[in-house]
């Protein structure tokens, strides 16, 4: 989620009909080092320019972390802009990326039209029409093509499968880790299957439209005090965490933990999605690997090295 985002390399060997030796190598630039020695408010203003993907969520999480560290009231956020940001990322994947991954035609024209209209006064009406006329039928076609370890046949709905966003924010647990009172960093739960990930993304898109229509506040949470601060915000990929430590009015340590950092720290999340799948060819195995990566949706460029061993 940064300028100079880094790179993800996924490696695997195709052998005896399966994928083996799966490995993920995620490299990230150390941009948060730029914050050391800065005044907290300057950091909060700089974050959206350094972390350009999900910039509204980055700003909200940074402001929440900085405010609670300094004992200040949490600033208000532009909830509509944040919901639209989530919709942008979800619709990009659901309309442009998932269909080709499943042998279907992407809905590029529909997405571009929505993207051009998303800042207008009729954004909600345009989005509701897009969901009704384009996303729902396309999602049904995708689900017909999406066959993996999940055996449950469930049609896309209006949010039944989405985990309520506020319940995924856990700033207190992160604060304990940030202060050195917990040995292990809190992590996001691993998805059960690629199909479940797709269903959840559709449901969360529907829920975001409902939230936009109902003027609902966007999920942002914080915990801390005495110079320690955690700010969290939801994104289309999961929970975004900003952690700050302020001493004598200056930032002494700062950390950003994005969903990509959780899901691709090692190969466990990707392995969980792929399971013990069997594939008739290297090409079929590579396709399954690509779908698994798409489901986890890294926010950095990536390369896949899948060789026939």
Structural summary, described in words:
The chain has 309 residues and is α+β, with helices and mostly antiparallel strands. It has a single domain, classed as Orthogonal Bundle (Cytochrome-c3 Hydrogenase, chain B). The protein has 11 helices and 7 strands. The strands form 2 sheets. The chain has a 4-stranded antiparallel β-sheet, with helices on both faces. A 3-stranded mixed β-sheet has the order 2-1-7, covered by helices on one side. β1 and β2 form a beta hairpin. α5 packs antiparallel against α8. The longest helix is centred in the N-terminal third of the chain and has 23 residues.
Give the SSE layout:
Layout: E1 7-15, E2 18-27, H1 40-50, H2 55-69, H3 79-101, H4 108-117, H5 123-145, H6 165-168, H7 171-178, H8 194-213, E3 220-225, E4 228-235, E5 238-247, E6 250-257, H9 259-263, H10 268-274, H11 282-296, E7 302-308
Parallel strand pairs: 1-7
Antiparallel strand pairs: 1-2, 3-4, 4-5, 5-6
Low-confidence stretches: 148-164
Indicate the radius of gyration in whole angstroms: 20 Å
Binned, the helix content reads 40-55%
Count the helices. How many? Answer: 11
User: Strand order of the main beta sheet, please?
Assistant: 3-4-5-6
Average pLDDT, to the nearest integer? 90
Write the CATH homologous superfamily: Cytochrome-c3 Hydrogenase, chain B
Strand content range: 15-25%
Structural domain count: 1
Summarize the structure.
The chain has helices spanning 40-50, 55-69, 79-101, 108-117, 123-145, 165-168, 171-178, 194-213, 259-263, 268-274, 282-296, and strands at residues 7-15, 18-27, 220-225, 228-235, 238-247, 250-257, 302-308.
């Amino acid at each position: 989620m940064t300028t100079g985002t880094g790179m993800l390399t996924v490696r695997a060997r195709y052998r005896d009909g399966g994928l083996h030796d799966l490995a993920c190598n995620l490299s990230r630039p150390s941009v948060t080092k730029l914050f050391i020695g800065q005044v907290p408010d300057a950091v909060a203003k700089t974050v959206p320019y350094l972390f350009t993907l999900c910039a509204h969520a980055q700003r909200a999480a940074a402001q929440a972390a900085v405010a609670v560290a300094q004992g200040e009231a949490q600033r208000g956020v532009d909830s509509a802009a944040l919901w639209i940001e989530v919709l942008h990322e979800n619709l990009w994947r659901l309309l442009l990326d998932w269909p080709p991954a499943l042998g279907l035609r992407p809905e590029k024209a529909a997405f571009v039209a929505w993207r051009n209209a998303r800042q207008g006064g009729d954004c909600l009406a345009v989005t509701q029409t897009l969901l009704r006329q384009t996303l729902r039928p396309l999602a049904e076609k995708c689900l017909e093509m999406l066959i993996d370890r999940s055996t449950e046949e469930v049609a896309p709905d209006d949010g039944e499968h989405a985990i309520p966003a506020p319940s995924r924010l856990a700033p207190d647990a992160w604060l304990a880790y940030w202060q050195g009172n917990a040995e292990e960093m809190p992590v996001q739960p691993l998805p059960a299957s690629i199909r479940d990930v797709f269903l959840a993304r559709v449901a969360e898109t529907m829920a975001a439209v409902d939230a936009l229509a109902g003027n609902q506040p966007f999920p942002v949470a914080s915990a801390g005090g005495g110079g320690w601060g955690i700010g969290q915000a939801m994104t289309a990929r999961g929970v975004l965490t900003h952690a700050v430590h302020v001493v004598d009015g200056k930032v002494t340590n700062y950390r950003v933990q994005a969903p990509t950092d959780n899901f691709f720290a090692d190969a466990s999340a990707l392995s969980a999605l792929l399971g013990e799948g069997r594939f008739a060819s290297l090409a079929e195995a590579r396709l399954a690997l690509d779908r698994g990566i798409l489901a986890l949706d890294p926010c950095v460029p990536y390369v896949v090295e899948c060789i026939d061993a």
